[in-house]
Amino acid sequence: MSSPRIALTTYSVKPRGGVVHTLELAEALSARGADVTVVALAEAGRGFFRPTAVPVHLVESPPPAPTLEERVFDSIAALTDALRRIGPGFDIVHSQDCISARAAARVRDAGAGFRLIRTVHHVDDFTTQALIDCQRAAIEEPDEVLVVSELWRRLLAEEYDVPARVVTNGVRADRFAGTLDAVRRKELRAEIGAEDRFLYLTIGGIEPRKGSRHLVDALARLRHTRPDPPMLAVIGGHSFQDYRAYREEVLGGLEAQGLALGRDLVLLGTLSDDAVVDWLHAADGFAFPSLKEGWGLVILEAMAAGLPVVSSDLEVFGEFLTPDVDAVMTRAGDDADLAAGLARLLDEPATRTRLADHGPRVAARYSWANTADQHLRIYRGS
């Protein structure tokens, strides 16, 4: 198969990691001459969070259901109906998540002639048996499984007995490089009261997997022990899963910890691509204390922008980060160690400068063009 017709499928049009991966991969494949279309669930009248340079087929998402289980299975049904109509037009359907993989498998098994490939970015910690079984099927049913890290290749082999190939992630380093006009930088910081304070940025909203509670607890430690405590700006917040109770618990505990929403922690919400880049250049450091990740693409984006990073020491981060060379890495889930790591960027200007200078060189190793070439070899059966 020299020029396969490819559909990349995803569950959303909002800026979550897997969705960003889908768009970036699709555009890199197209730049290599591939025939690629992105198929995604979207609310009526909504499009992707940014303009796209490839054909897009949007499938209207079902009305919100009261439980996660219902939302997942309703979404699978909606994508299944759509792929029944358009699936025969593709040689390869490459799914980037559990929902679209289950839908594609149903259509393939009903007689569609496409080859089903699935990238497993991570495995969710579902709590109902129906969702656990659904996730397992979405890993076991595809014709071929890809992962973006060696850690997840090993975990799928050990826990699911599924062989997977590693394809490296990418970052559009040129988009994040450069500088922000000094006047605009000052304006952004003034908008949130960060004129003279050290400003940490994090991306991913407030949710358990991102270690948000640990980050807030570490911030509180610094508030109580330093005359110059940093503040934190949070970008993002959309998730298919409902983390409202967790979010309310974290934010509801701020006052008891001596923190104030709007003074020490600012929620920037979902921003445009350009606004995210601006904030990466307006901040002083990037905090990413995740407890579970498939890779950690936003770390590379921050590094490409020249922002020094404080991260957790997840094994998967160790595939592209070296402690104290590429980032300050702290023990995952350890509030005290995270607070100490955050303090280092305030107290060690040489460390800030070294990490900021080194970051773009690390990001440059991971291009989407290289990622696209790896995928094309797989699509063509090599």
Automatic annotation (TrEMBL):
<dbReference type="Pfam" id="PF00534">
    <property type="entry name" value="Glycos_transf_1"/>
</dbReference>
<dbReference type="InterPro" id="IPR023986">
    <property type="entry name" value="GlycosylTfrase_MSMEG0565"/>
</dbReference>
<feature type="domain" description="Glycosyltransferase subfamily 4-like N-terminal">
    <location>
        <begin position="16"/>
        <end position="175"/>
    </location>
</feature>
<feature type="domain" description="Glycosyl transferase family 1">
    <location>
        <begin position="185"/>
        <end position="359"/>
    </location>
</feature>
<dbReference type="InterPro" id="IPR001296">
    <property type="entry name" value="Glyco_trans_1"/>
</dbReference>
<dbReference type="GO" id="GO:0016757">
    <property type="term" value="F:glycosyltransferase activity"/>
</dbReference>
<dbReference type="InterPro" id="IPR028098">
    <property type="entry name" value="Glyco_trans_4-like_N"/>
</dbReference>
<keyword id="KW-0808">Transferase</keyword>
<keyword id="KW-0328">Glycosyltransferase</keyword>
<dbReference type="Pfam" id="PF13439">
    <property type="entry name" value="Glyco_transf_4"/>
</dbReference>
<protein>
    <submittedName>
        <fullName>Glycosyltransferase-like protein</fullName>
    </submittedName>
</protein>
